[in-house]
Task: structure prediction
Amino acid sequence: MKYKILTATLLAAFATGPVFGADDPIAARKAIMQNVGAATGAGAGMVKGETEFNAVTAALVLRTMNAAALGFGELFPEGSESGGKTTVAPSIWDDRAGFDMILAKFQSDTAAGIAAKPADLDAFKAAFGVATTNCAACHKDYRVKKE
Result:
C-alpha cells in the first residue's frame, strides 16, 4: 500500500507540475523543481533505507528527473532573472554555456539511469547517485543560496 501511495504521489506531481506556460517561466521552473524535489525525496528514502526499494518507484524517480531536464533550459529567457521569488543566480545568464552543459549532462545521466532499468537497490543507488550529483552541481553554481 505504501508503494501505491508513493507512486501515485509521484505520478500526480509529474502530471500536474508543469502547467504553466511560457508566459510565466518562473512559475514553470518552480513547479518542475518541486516535482524533482518530490522524486528526489522518494529516491533518497529508498537509498537511506527509510522506505523499501521498489523498482516501479525507482523508475518513476528517474523518469521524473529526466522529464524535468528536457526543455528546462528554455524556461530561462532574458527578463526572468528576477521576480516570483526566484532563486536562480545571475550566472545562468552570465555563463549560459556552462548551465546548458550541466543540464545536458543531467539529461544524459538520467536517460542512462532509465535505460539501466535498476531492478535492485544497489543498481538504483548508482543511477540515483549520478543523477543527484548533477543536481548538486547545478545548485552550487546556478542557484542563490537560501539564507
In short: Residues 2-142 form a domain with the Four Helix Bundle (Hemerythrin (Met), subunit A) fold (CATH 1.20.120.10).
